[in-house]
Structures are given as structure tokens and as C-alpha cells.
Design brief:
Elements: H1 2-29, H2 41-61, H3 69-112, H4 123-135, H5 142-152, H6 161-176, H7 181-195, H8 207-218, H9 226-266, H10 270-274, H11 278-293, H12 296-329, H13 339-356, H14 359-364, H15 375-390, H16 395-405, H17 415-427, H18 432-457
Length: 509
Amino acid sequence: MEKLEQKLVKLIEYKQKDALLNLIYDLTELPEKEVEYKIPKRVLDLKDKIYDCYKKLEFALAQDIADRSEYNSQLVELSKEIVNMGVIINRYTCLNDQMGEYLVNEFKLKDVSNISDDVPLSNKSVVSAAAHFASHQDCSTIEGKFAISNIMANLPIRMTKDKFSDYVTKGLGILIDNLPPTFAKACSDRLKDMFYVPVDSIKEDFPMMYEKISAVYALDTEAATKEDFESYIADVDDNVEALQSIYSLLSIYYNDVNYLLILSNFAIDEDYLFQDEMLIKDFYYSVVDYIENKDDELADTVFLQVSNEIESRFEDSKPLEEEINNLMDEVTDWENLSDELKTTISVNNAVSNRFYRELEEEIMTPQDLDKEYTTEELANDVNTYIAGVCAELPKTKEKFLKQKFLKNIPCPMTQEEFVDYATYSLDGVNDKLVSLVAYGNIFEIVDALEKQEHEHSDGCGCGHEHHHEHGHDCSCGHEHHHEHGHDCGCGHEHHHEHGHDCGCGHHHH
């Protein structure tokens, strides 16, 4: 076991130097230059605070580890600020998704208005298609329930307020079943944003985005042309892309604070990091020079050099990690390990956990939850929020928001209940355009399923794939294929990590 402890001590030292190199990489990469949008001041202020903490690191390392509490508190507080900003950016993304859904729906309503009034409606064929779709889903799984939710979100809403609240309560219960309490609370908070985000909330951070979204609200959809809709939808897509790139910045900032916390909590002193490491020491002080003088040429030079150094060290560390893994596999009596070895293993795990923890993980599993909430409490919170929002909205918008919201929670209905609801929903529509849009949306979902089935189940043995296109005919004489690019409907945000490696957000794995 002495050999294992020695190897772990060496690995911990490597990981701390790796954290420093990753930090230097981020601070010289200058990712802000890649964002093709004006970055809000309070996001840039976070970067300035990271710079400040970086410059203070050498003074923190001059203290004993036990005396660094003030510096560590500053880092922890900065981490919380970054997480809070990440929540806000996610909220703004939800707002733009809501705008995009509204625009696409209005465009489709206008598009199908050109269809002849003589074309008959056929609710029965649509319900039959929906039933076929449901029969191919495993409703015992959350994936199967979410698949049906996609249909539910395209059926005109026909529920009383109590029925809708009950549906949300049951769906949320399925969603958070067996999840850690922190994750469950984060899910319910995210769901509120997925239902509705006030437009004014974006005004301070993104005034230009606010103006574009306000223009969407003011749009005369009756007079708007196809080109008008395409322009506004493109604006929304651009907004989402900008928000994703800013969220990526925050992910990098969050990682950087974690690197600083690793160094502050576990690096013994400056010599521990820089002894026999003159290159790393030179990198470190070059970044201090960059922060003070903003010499981009210096940053570019250090960035290229540190990139090569990270890659080289990763290759060198592989044999050590493999050897440690083999030694760990040989451990059978964990209870009787020496206290020194247990401490070393604990430190190694703590360093790794901090190194690999990502912003989205922190947002969805916050470590400072004030209490554990029951499913009933969380559902009541979501339903109360929805009721408060709807009390201020026109009835048509309330119905639209409730309908589209259903894609974000698993459908709690049985297949039979779902088919009954689909019939009840469509039979209650007295607006032909609304029916036609629902038809088109549902047939698109069903067509995608049938295409997938035929691609995977031909089995003729010829060695080629056969792609049978099925165009469900709702008898309206119109094609229903209006794509909207920015929202995949998964209910989660899309994160663009550092692009140079596997995409984990770090620089050697």
C-alpha cells in the first residue's frame, strides 16, 4: 500500500499543476473574442474578478493552507456569482425559445389560411396516427412518456385549470422520481422559466435583444409576410446562438474558479508548484504580465506554448494513472487502510471532483440547498407560478403557453387516456386553422417515427438501407414541414465547450 500512496501523491501533484496549466490556457485563449455579440458588463466583470484572484494566488500560496480562508471565501463567492449568471442566461434562452415557438405557430396559422375552405377536416385520422405513435412507445419509461409529450404539446389544450395543475403535478412527480433533492428543486425552477419569462427581464443585460423581442410582440401577424416571419425567426435563432456562446464563457469562468480553488486548498506553497518547473513558472508570471498590460501578442504566445505543454503532460501521465488504477483494483480491505492512505485517496478524489465539476452540474445540483422539498411542494410552486403568469395574460396566449409547456414534462397518462384526450382535444376546436396546424405538427412527428422504423427494419438482406418516405395525408392538400432551427425541444440548454478536445470543457481529456 505504500507504493499506492506514493503514486497517488505524485498524481495529486500532477493534477494541481494540470489545473494551473488549464487556468493559464483559459486566461490566454481570450474566448471573449469569439463571441459575436456584445457581452453584458456583469459577465465581463466576472472575468475581471478572476483576473484579480489569479494575481492574488501567489500571496495566498505564501500562507499556510489553513490561513487561506479569506481567499477561499472570495473564490466561493465568485463561483456563486457565475452560477447565478448561468441561471439567468438559461432563463433568457427560455425566453427566446418561447418567442421562436410563438413565431413559428403564427407563421403556420397564416400559411394554412391559404387552404381551401372546401377541404374537410379529419380528426379521426389524426387521432389514429397519434394512437399508432403512442402504441410504439414504452410508457413504463420516462423516454416513452416524453415521446408522447411531444404529441401532447401539439394538441390544442383542453383542460380545466385544476386538470392542468393535476397533470403538471403528476408529470413533475415522474420527472423528479428518485432524483437527488437538489436536482429536483433545480428541475422545478427550470420548469417555471420554460413556461414563461417576462420580456422586461432581459432589458438590462441585452438591450438590443430586448428591442428585437419587443418587436415580435408588436408584430401584426395578419399583415406580416413570409419574409417578415423568416427575418424574425432568424433574429431569435441569432439570439439563442449568442446566449449559448455567453453561457460557454460562464462555463469556462466556472472551471477557472475551480482550478483556483484546487490550488488554494491543496497546493502547499509556490515551490510545490514551480520547483523544477521553470516553464510553468514562466507561464504563470506571463499571465500576470498580460493581466496588467493586456498585451494580446503575449497572450497568443503563451497560449500556443501551454497548449503543447498540456498535451505532452497528458501523454506522460497516462502510465501513472493506469498503474494507480491497477493498484486500486487490488485493494480488498478498505476499512484497514492506513489513515495516511485514506487521507491521500480522499484528497485525490476531492481534487478530481472539483476539476471535473461543470457549470450545468452546479446549476442543476446546487450544494447549498436550504432544505429538502417534497414533490407536492415543488409542484405547488410551479403551479402557483403558472397561475400567477396566466392571470395577467390574454386567454389565447395562456392556452398557447400551457400547450407548448407540456413537452417539458413526461406525460403521466396511460396510452388509452392519451388517445381519449387527443380525441377530446381535437373535437373541441372550432377554428379550422388551429386544427390544420395541429394536424401538420402531429403528422410530422408520426412520419419521423415511421421513417425510423423503415430504416431499421427492412431486413431484405441486400446490405443496403431502404428509406421509405411516408407523407401522411390529412386531406388538407398542403405540406406541413416548417422547420424551426433553434429549439430541439429537449428542454435543456446547449453548451458549446472548448472545441479543441473531447468537449468536456477541460484541456487534456
